[in-house]
Amino acid sequence: MSGAIQRHILGSVGAGLGSLGSKRAASHVSPLTMSWLLGAAKQMSHVPNYEEKYRAKLQQRAREQGCASVADLKKNLTSGSIPKAPVESNTSGKQKKVSSNLPPTVKKLDDILRLDLLTERTGAEVGELWTAYHAGKPGVVSAAIPAETYRRLQETARKNPLFVLPLPRADQGVEFFLLQFDYHQVHFTSLAEYKVHTVQSRPVLTLTHYTDLMDHDIVLMRGELDPENRTFDVENAQLLALLMQLFYVSGGPKKRALLETFNHRPTEFDYAQLIDAAQTL
Questions:
Q1: Which of 17, 78, 118, 267: CA 20 to 30 A from 26?
Q2: How far apart are CA 275 and CA 281, in angstroms?
């Protein structure tokens, strides 16, 4: 992060929080707002069991691949037990180009699930397999995103690469998290920690978007939580991902205005307005 962007963020934090020194700022939160935020968090905690939801379809996939069970199918997707289908050279070149947009330390899509098996499926089938594969895995969230939705997300992010989101913390108010887009990744860091450690802050959550299958009209998202952080869990990650989508993609003019103010006129940014806007879908 450049010095200009760092001063930008610290300036917006100072303007928004003023003299607040605690990690969680309860003074901005009305009872109605807190009720809504906690309700949203509770709804996100009831995550559907995607393996149950798609059991019939997954069993069909397993039979097609000669697997005895869904568990065997999931295992085969990450192993070499199913013979690889030939991959056209132009597809391989596309994959290599996409992978170059991710840091070398990040797992490529083919390191998670066998890409040659995914390319044989429709976008809907890929989404089912991706979601079922990650269901129940500790410290991980996932999603299958329509390609057009992801294009809109990226378009907005190019103009507004930074933002803050409120996360409800029971009776202790709201904790703010700074998000930063970095190509096909999004990093979430505690705003209070960023004020202290700036660029040395450790993200509590990193979302990685795999665009290898955009020709299938789908982008696969995998979010990994910081395993050393005991105060941030999967439910928190799901709520932040939902709020990110609301402000960057599906929200109305009020949300877009807050996003642009934070990035381009940080001294005018109002954290109370942010929490108020987070109440509406």
A1: 267
A2: 12
Q: What is the pLDDT of residues 88-124, one digit of tens each?
A: 333 344 444 444 478 888 999 999 988 888 888 899 9
Q: What is the pLDDT of residues 73-87, one digit of tens each?
A: 656 555 544 433 333
Asked whether 169 and 175 are in contact (CB, 8 A), the reply is yes
pTM across the whole model: 0.72
Give yes or no for a contact between 177 and 163, defined as CB atoms under 8 angstroms apart.
no
Altogether, the residues listed in the chain come to a count of: 281
CB atoms within 10 A of CB 16: 23
Give me 84's structure tokens: 């690889």
Phi first, then psi: what are they for 177, rounded to 5°?
A: -125, 135
Which residue bears the tokens 């170059």? 100
3-state secondary structure the chain: CCHHHHHHHHHHHHHHHCCCCCCCECCCCCHHHHHHHHHHHHHHHCCCCHHHHCHHHHHHHHHHCCCCCHHHHHHHHCCCCCCCCCCCHHHHHHHHHHHCCCCCCCCCHHHHCCHHHHCCCCHHHHHHHHHHHHCCCCCEEEEEEEHHHHHHHHHHHHHCCEEEEEEECHHHCEEEEEEEEECCEEEEEEHHHHHHHHHHCCCCEEEEEECCCHHHCEEEEEEEECCCCCCCCHHHHHHHHHHHHHHHHHCCHHHHHHHHHHHHCHHHCCHHHHHHHCCCC
